[in-house]
Amino acid sequence: MAGSFFSVRNHRLTRLLVVAVLCLLVLGGSLLLNSSTSATSASDKAISGAFVGKVEAGTGSNGRDYYLSFTVNQGKALIAVATLTSIYSNKVVIQNHTVKSEVGFKRSSLQNKQAWAVDVKVDREQVTGRFIVHNQGQDKSYNVKATKATGDAGLYWTKTRSEHTTYVGGWILLPNAYEQGGGILKDGQQVESRPELRSPQIHTQRANLDENTTLLIQKVDPSMIDSVDLPSPSR
């Protein structure tokens, strides 16, 4: 009887030791994973800056240019894509220096996809990767390279309240400042035209939409990305 008692007791102790070892292994693996994730996050957070680039998506009646900007700060990125008349954006978290995101507006003809997507790598001097155009269920992929926004180049934003109307929109300017895209929304609906941003407008931070409306212009700094809002028009 005593032998049976000690046998059961030893069996229970063995089970407890096995469970304890397994728990320690799981805890150790979790700590290693957290340590790796923290290291990656710290590396991603070390990158800060604004990058701009352009994608020439073909020629002919269906060809168009897309202007892109990536504003990066503290492990987050504000992505903006602009055509000559519109601008769209999305905010994402950077993981392992990689940004993957849909950008734009959903359309049933695109099978509920967004208009565009990016899959890029971010480093201190440039953003490189792929820019994907969704077109009636057929995706086209293009190389994209965005470099540091120097001088007047960068992403510009307006959120102006005039009487009972709200104007929200933005511009993406390339380094020569004469290549730019963007658009303005008036109470959520897209305005047919927008002001061209030139040095006088950039330096005075004001641009005239029409003779009755002056928009307040602000260049987007990396520290601003949580507050910048570029909503898409209803589709």
Describe the structure.
- This protein has 235 residues and is α+β, with helices and mostly antiparallel strands.
- The chain has one domain.
- Helix content is 21%, strand content 45%.
- The protein is built from 2 helices and 15 strands.
- The strands form 3 sheets. It has an 8-stranded antiparallel sheet with strand order 4-3-2-1-8-7-6-5, with no helix packed on it.
Structural class, by secondary structure, is alpha+beta
Total strand count, please? 15
How many individual domains? 1
Rg over alpha carbons? 26 Å
**Secondary-structure element pattern, one letter each:** HEEEEEEEEEEEEHEEE
Coarse morphology: globular
Strand line-up of the largest beta sheet: 4-3-2-1-8-7-6-5
What is the percentage of strand-forming residues? Answer: 35-45%
Q: Which spans have pLDDT < 50 for at least 5 consecutive residues?
A: 29-40
Counted by DSSP, the helix tally is 2
Main sheet? 8 strands, antiparallel
Averaged pLDDT: 83
Proportion of residues in helical segments: 10-25%
The N- and C-terminal alpha carbons lie at a distance of 81 Å
Q: Which SSEs are present, and which pair or pack?
A:
Elements: H1 2-45, E1 49-57, E2 64-73, E3 76-82, E4 87-93, E5 98-103, E6 116-122, E7 126-135, E8 138-148, E9 154-162, E10 165-173, E11 180-186, E12 189-190, H2 199-204, E13 206-210, E14 213-216, E15 218-219
Antiparallel strand pairs: 1-2, 1-8, 2-3, 3-4, 5-6, 6-7, 7-8, 9-10, 9-15, 10-11, 11-12, 13-14
